């Protein structure tokens, strides 16, 4: 996705990223959830 991006989480809170390009985390392993930080690569 290309930014800026706003995402509404399950609890109703909204997080924003003003980065040019972002990736959403779908595995929930990211320390920066909902933004992907490639943590999924460390676990098999």
Short overview:
With 44 residues, the protein is mainly β.
Descriptive notes:
The chain has 44 residues and is mostly beta strands. It has one domain. The chain contains no helices and 2 strands. The chain has strands at 5-8, 14-17. It has a two-stranded antiparallel sheet. A hairpin with a 5-residue loop joins strand 1 and strand 2 (14-17).
Work out the number of β strands.
2
Question: First CA to last CA: what distance?
Answer: 26 Å
What is the structural class?
mainly beta
Shape: flat
Low-confidence stretches: none
Helix content: under 10%
Topology diagram in text:
Elements: E1 5-8, E2 14-17
Antiparallel strand pairs: 1-2
Looking at this protein, list some descriptive labels.
44 residues; 2 strands; flat; 2Fe-2S; MitoNEET_CISD; metal-binding; CDGSH-type Zn-finger protein
């Amino acid at each position: 996705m290309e930014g800026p991006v706003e995402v509404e989480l399950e609890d109703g809170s909204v997080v924003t990223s003003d980065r040019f390009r972002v990736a959403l985390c779908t595995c929930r392993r990211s320390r920066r959830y909902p933004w992907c930080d490639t943590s999924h690569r460390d676990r098999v």
